[in-house]
Specification:
InterPro entries: CaH_exchang, NaCa_Exmemb, NCX_ion-bd_dom_sf, YccF. The chain has 722 residues and is mainly α. The chain contains 26 helices and 13 strands. The protein folds into two domains: 178 residues, no CATH class; 379 residues, NCX, central ion-binding region (A middle domain of Talin 1), CATH 1.20.1420. Strand 10 and strand 11 form a beta hairpin. Helix 15 runs parallel beside helix 23 and helix 18 runs antiparallel to helix 24. 39% of the residues are buried.
Amino acid sequence: DVPKATKPRCDSDDPRRGSFCDRHCAAISNVQGDLGCHLHRPCVPPAVCPLSCCQQHSDEVCESCVVKTTLTAENAVEANKLSNNYKFGFKKWKSHVTARPWEDRSEIVKELYSDLNVIKGSGGSTVTCGNIFYLLLFGWWLSFLYVLVAAVMFVTIVGVPYGRLCWDLARYFLWPFGKVIQKVEVPKSHQALEGCETGAGESSALLGGPVPRRWSPRCWVDAGYWQRAGIVVWLCLGYPLLVVAHGLVCVTAWLLIIFIPVAKLSARTAARVLLLPPERVLVRHLRMTEVPLEGEVILCCYRAVNPYYYKYAVDGINVFAVNLLPLVLVTLVLGYVDSHNTLTSSSIKFTLALLSIMPLSYYIGMAIASISAQSNFAVGAVVNATFGSITELTFYITALIKGSREGNRCYAEIVKSALTGTLVGCVLFVPGLCMVIGGIRHQEQRFNSRSAGVSSALLFLSVGGVFAPTLFSKVYGKLVCGECHNVTQNPLGHYLCHNCHFDLMGNNGTLYYSHVQPLVYTVSLLLPAAYLIGLFFTLKTHSHIYDIHISDCHMPGHHHSAVVHWSRWRALVILLLSTLCMSACADLATEHISPILTNSTISQYFIGVTVLAMVPELPEIVNGIQFALQNNLSLSIEIGNCIAVQVCMLQIPILVLFTIFYPTNFTLVFSDLHVYASMFSVVLMNYIFMDGKCDYFQGTVLVMVYFILLAVYFFAPSPSGC
């Protein structure tokens, strides 16, 4: 939803020059930011600029084009959010945290938020695939229900007016497209006389309508009585049944998302049309040559399906996150009420718990972005450092606690697999997928290689530090095998051994407690310190490597104050509630994962590196794809690198610190497969990112390597202890 950039004006000495530079620097660099104004190089080379432009502005140089990347935003809060996206360690968030000005929205988005009461001149043919799907899914049975209710109203006599209304609505809902429902005004004299008609009326040359043959003063009383009786019959027999039907249609259409126009149609019918007096509701077919009657238009629908409703938001929350929120309530109720699995099995509860993590991750990200955008740098840094990894840490800690209580080492191995899967997925899959999708729209994409180099250096440091205890144990540990067989039947021949591992607890654990454990604690202290140094380097002393500048340019209509979706207190409450629900869902996931681990034929390695590692990162993947589609690959790459760095430099040290106060089976010694996969991924990523540009082919290479590693994990035997 990019606003139309029609003549932006700059608060500078030469507004004409500023607007020219803003437009043509974006065209030269072919980079569109969150609002389409990224400037990277001078806008004057005759070989690059269009000829018609250079004839008028050949000697004009925009200084901001040479030095910095300029971002434009509607207000100060949105500008702060855009600036935070380019800060190392801050959560990258694509969606707006403030309400967009209505005049800046595109016509497509404006149509999404319409109330289906606008009559268009010529909407084309109404026979479309989406409308036919409506007829098959909702139209036929909803129309049939109206016919049944109309028959009931006719039988009651007093409900005849409502029977006529239901008959008209039956024809309307069978195919509502190209038809209109209006609220018309009925003259008082006609309302009074209408109930007193006793026979055929005479024609009046002046009014052109029927004139009642006879009436009496008692007609007013009789009309009111019959009208009240009809209303009572309608509210008791007809209206409740139709409200239930429209509610079912509304919920179903809303969950299907692209059928949200049908949901609006049903909701507006139940809330307004069915509560109006029947004589004030007019249903008619809208023809192009027909002049609409005077009166309020209640409903006018042309299409049942709109594929752009994936952009729809409710109070700043995407419609997908809104639809998945009831899933969280269902998961919590089933998980804690049906503790003996009488209603559902453990596998279903585990799946529901994992799916519930996705919307909760979205709400946590939205809350963090809202608080950071409305606060100063210190508050934003604290919130991002505290809650940035809360999703993953919640699951890891609950899994370790359950493994410690049951004395099962398998949970610790699952946590290690999930940590490795997050690292490998964010290094290979996230940037690779963004390169592929962004490369489909843009032939070649460029990114800030300097900022990517900082993240790459931290990744090398963190991977080396995390796997240092593993390499140490390989060198000094004692290889112990559970079972060995002599293949050649010769005492000096070859032996085939199974379940081999390096024993660190020999001689009463001298090697582990005297050498490996101090090394683990040392690494766990050095890695967060390196992370803080990286923050200080990128945010304080060398912040110029990101070349970010919030421009003074503003579009028409951007001079008003910001209207935030979530205030700071509201965002804080949502953040705490989402974190609490996340803890409950993580507890349910770890509670019901045991049957899957024991009964599944798939390697526990594969379950850890795929499902448990990547499901919590789905909102981040969606943000990265959206940035890549806008040719802003720098943020797509930073999303993956930032998560990978936080896994090694924050999450793993926190888990080590947790094991000090709550002893578990978690040790910072990984299997060979984890070590080789992580190191190879980091080396390949640095090789791809060296030149600062990429295309869909390089992204395909990263994605294919990721799938090869997944195949290795899929066919690998389960870790020892599982």
